[in-house]
Amino acid sequence: MSLWFITMMPFIIYLLITIIVVRFIFKKAKHFQLTKRPTKIIIGIYIVLLVASVALYPALTSSNSLYLTDEKAKKQLKLNKVFEQNALANKLTEEDEKYLVDKWTYILKGGELYLKQVSPDEYINEQVIVHWTDNRKQQIEGKVYKTRNILSNMDFSEKVKPTMISWSDEHTLNFENPDSYTFEGNLFTDEIGLFPFANRGFDPFDFDKNIGADGSTYVILKVPKHINVIDENGLRMYPPVEY
Amino acid sequence: MTLTTKAIKNQIKLKLTVHADMLVYLIVLQIIGMILFAFSGSGSMGRGSVNFSLKFIIYSPAGLFMLSALWIFYVAITLTRKETRREILPYIRTPKINSITDIIILIYMSAFLTFTIMLSNYLLYAILILFTKKEFVEGMTIFNEPKVFFINTVAVFIVSMVIAAIGYLIGTLIQISKLFILVFIALFIGYNSSKLSMFIVNYFYEQNPTFFPFAIFNIVIITFCLFIANVIGSRMEVKGT
Fold this sequence. Notes:
The complex is a heterodimer of chains A (243) and B (241).
Chain A: H1 3-32, H2 36-61, H3 70-88, E1 100-107, E2 112-117, E3 126-133, E4 139-146, E5 150-151, E6 154-155, E7 164-168, E8 172-176, E9 181-188, E10 217-224, E11 228-231, E12 236-237
Chain B: H1 3-18, H2 20-40, E1 43-48, E2 52-59, H3 62-80, H4 82-87, H5 95-131, E3 136-138, H6 146-176, H7 179-192, H8 195-207, H9 211-240
Antiparallel strand pairs in B: 1-2
Transmembrane segments (chain B): 23-44, 56-79, 100-128, 148-170, 179-205, 211-232
Keywords (chain B): Membrane, Transmembrane, Transmembrane helix
C-alpha cells in the first residue's frame, strides 16, 4: 500500500462519512422546503458562536493546570541553573533543599567507590557531584535532588521520576533510568502546515525556542578523601576549572 | 449610481439569496468536521527521550480547510451549471454582468469560508475545554501571535480563491462537453506525477517560503482561470441567445 494512500486514508473515510451525512440531511430537508429566514438565522447563530468562542479563549486558556507563564518558566529555568552551580560549589541554600528527593548514609567496604550505570548504552539524565571530607571513617553521605522538568511552559516535574539508585557489592553505587513517562497532550494553534511562510514553526519540542528546563537528578556524595572514586561511565560532574 | 452598477448590485443580492443554502452546507460540513476532529485533531507529533516522551495531538484549522476547499470547488462548479443560470436568467442583463457577479459571489463565499475556518478552531477548542478534560499547550494564536493568524487567514483566502477559480473554469468547460471531466482527471493525475508539481512545491515551499511569491503566483492563476472561464462563458451565452 502506498504512503500516499495511507496518509489520505483517514481523510477519505472522513469525506465518505461527510458526504453520506450531508446527503441524508439535505434529502430530508427537501421535504420541509426551508425558507430563507431560517437559513439566515442558522448563519447568524454560527457566526455569533464563532466570535464568542474567540472572545472566550483568553478566559479558557488559564484552565491548563500544567501551564506556567513565560515569566514563571524563565524563573524556574534560572533556579535550575543556580541549583547546579550551588551544588558544584558545595553551597546549597535552604531554597535548594526543596529539590531534595532522598538522603542516606552508607558504610563502604574497601578503599574504592565504584559508580556504575546499569545500562551503559542508554543516556542517563543524572549527575554525580563528589565533595571530599576529612572523615577518616568509611562513611559515605548521599543526597539525591531532582530539579524541575519544564517543557513548552508546562511543568512535568511531578510526573518524571528521579534516577533509581542502589548499592551492591558493598562498594558499588548503581544508577538506572526510571520507568519512562509518556505525556499525551494537545496543541492548539492557528498555524496551517500547508503554508510554511505563514508560520513561525512552533514546535513544542524545540528546546531552543521554547522555555524549557530539562531537569536532572543530582546525587551529591560526601566522600572521605582516602577513598578512590572510580567512574567508568562518566557519571561524575566536576566544577568548572578557572585558569 | 450608474445603471450597470445598480444591475450588478441587484444581481449580487439575488445570487446571494439563491446561494445562501450553500453557506448552510458549509456550516454542516464544518460541524461534522469539528465533531470528528475533536477526537483525533488535525495532526500529531511526538518525541521520546530515555525516561520522558511526549505526544501531541495538533488542533489547527488545516483539516477543516481541506474539507472546506472541496465545498468552494463544488460551489464554483454549481455557479456555472445550466440549471443554476436558468434559475436566475430573467434577472441577468448581460453575460459581462453575470461574470462579474459570479466572481464577486466567489470572493464572498471564499471570504466566508476563510472567516469560519479560522474561527471554527476556537469553537472546537472552547467545546473541548468546557466539556472534556483535555489540557492544551498554547501554540500560535490570535492573542499571542496576531501576525501568524493574519497571514494564515490571507493564505487560506488566496488558496480557496484558486480552488474556486479552477472549479469555475472546469465547470464552464464541462458545460461545453462532458468529455472535459476525463481531460481534467487525466490532467490532475498527470500534474501530480509531473516535474511541474515538484518544481512548485520545491520553489514555493522549500526554496522561497515567503508570502509574496506565493501570493503573486496564485493571483496569476486566479486571474488566468477566471479570464478564460469568462471568455468561454460569454461566447456560450451569445450562442444560446
